[in-house]
Amino acid sequence: MMDHMSLHVEDLPAMRVFYEKACAPLGISVVMQVTKEMTGYADMAGFGGHKPFLWLVGTEKTTPPLHMALKAETRAEVDAFYAAAIAAGGRDNGRPGIREHYHPNYYAAFVIDPEGHNLEAVCQKPE
């Protein structure tokens, strides 16, 4: 099981704002910040619940773009994630809905973040 990952971003302040807004409906927020002086190479923002699992690292844009799926507890959280991400400047890459090609309860929404990454929220529980 994965503990955490890093996403290198070109514009850390803008990406932090986007991820704060997009992830809020999922209960994900900035739980830790470290400075370039502390790391020796970059400012970082750690997103999670009680501990960081996603680090935005202010260096340069990760290429090629990544796909990341964030777990939602309910379908309503998926809907709220999508609305918040679009309002924060994300681009539609798949409105909320069932993706039966994965399985009958795969309810997800997809947005492209400001640096081109495909961010998904998914609830895999029955209604």
TrEMBL record:
**Source species, domain of life:** Bacteria
Q: Which InterPro entries match?
A: Glyas_Bleomycin-R_OHBP_Dase, Glyas_Fos-R_dOase_dom, VOC_core
- A Pfam family the protein falls into: Glyoxalase
Please state every residue range assigned to the domain named VOC.
Answer: 1-124
Q: Extract the PANTHER family matched here.
A: GLYOXALASE FAMILY PROTEIN (AFU_ORTHOLOGUE AFUA_5G14830)
The molecule here is called VOC family protein
Species of origin: Rhizobium daejeonense
